[in-house]
């Protein structure tokens, strides 16, 4: 079974998307932020940024056995510290600025935290991290502005039918990595 990373700026729909893919494929869902809190994979609370100061080494050590076993779908807003060998597919969710702003504001983010995350999305920080950290062919950018787009993203990941344009010559490539396969659906052998 493949390992998939669903990443993106906070508020882009990572948790919803990853949980739905996990439910429909049988992949094991890992929310790294929850693990950081539950397994104390941090160095304490950062008052300025209103979050835990994570310990990347502890996170990688805690996840190693599960990732080596395969069949994991990982939800986290960053990606550059995960070992490249872990993932067969990296999905970077993106969101229009006005939609993202409203989502973050609804979460009650402070103005500083809201602005920092907006700048991150505008500057494509997570997308660039993914492109720099993983093979080009496994990194896929997906829009996640509406429930319909989220549902389409899930549907395409679950059935493996998604294709993406490689360049302007209308050549398309399936999202599921060659040799990785997609999870079998009921009735398939």
Task: Give a quick precis of the structure.
By secondary structure, the protein is of the alpha/beta class. It has seven helices and nine strands, in the order βαβαββαββαααβαββ.
Range of helix content: 40-55%
Strand order of the largest sheet: 2-5-1-6-7
- Poorly predicted regions are 161-174, 177-189
Number-wise, the strands total 9
H/E order of the elements?
Answer: EHEHEEHEEHHHEHEE
Main sheet: strands, sense, barrel: 5 strands, parallel
Structural Rg = 17 Å
Overall mean pLDDT stands at: 87
Category by helix and strand content? alpha/beta
Which range does the strand content fall in?
15-25%
Q: Quickly count the helices.
A: 7
Distance between the termini: 14 Å
Give the overall silhouette: globular
Task: Please give a structural write-up.
41% of the residues lie in helices and 21% in strands. By secondary structure, the protein is α/β, with parallel strands linked by helices. The strands form three sheets. Strands 2-5-1-6-7 form a five-stranded parallel β-sheet, with helices on both faces. Strand 8 and strand 9 (172-174) form a beta hairpin. The protein is globular and about 40 Å long.
């Amino acid at each position: 079974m493949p390992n998939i990373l669903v990443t993106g700026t906070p508020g882009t729909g990572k948790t919803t998307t990853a949980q739905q893919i996990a439910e429909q494929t049988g992949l094991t869902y890992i929310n790294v932020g929850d693990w950081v809190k539950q397994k104390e994979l941090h160095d304490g609370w950062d008052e300025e940024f209103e979050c835990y100061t994570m310990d990347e080494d502890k996170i990688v050590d805690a996840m190693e056995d599960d990732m080596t076993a395969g069949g994991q779908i990982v939800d986290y807003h960053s990606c550059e510290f995960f070992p490249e060998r872990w993932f067969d597919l990296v999905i970077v969710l993106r969101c229009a600025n006005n939609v993202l702003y409203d989502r973050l504001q609804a979460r009650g983010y402070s103005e500083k935290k809201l602005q920092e995350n907006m700048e991150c999305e505008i500057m494509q920080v997570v997308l660039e991290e993914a492109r720099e950290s993983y093979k080009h062919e496994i990194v896929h950018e997906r829009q996640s502005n509406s429930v319909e787009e989220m549902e389409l993203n899930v549907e395409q990941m679950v059935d493996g039918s998604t294709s993406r344009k490689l360049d302007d010559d209308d050549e398309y490539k399936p999202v599921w990595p060659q040799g990785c396969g997609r999870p079998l659906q009921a009735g398939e052998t």
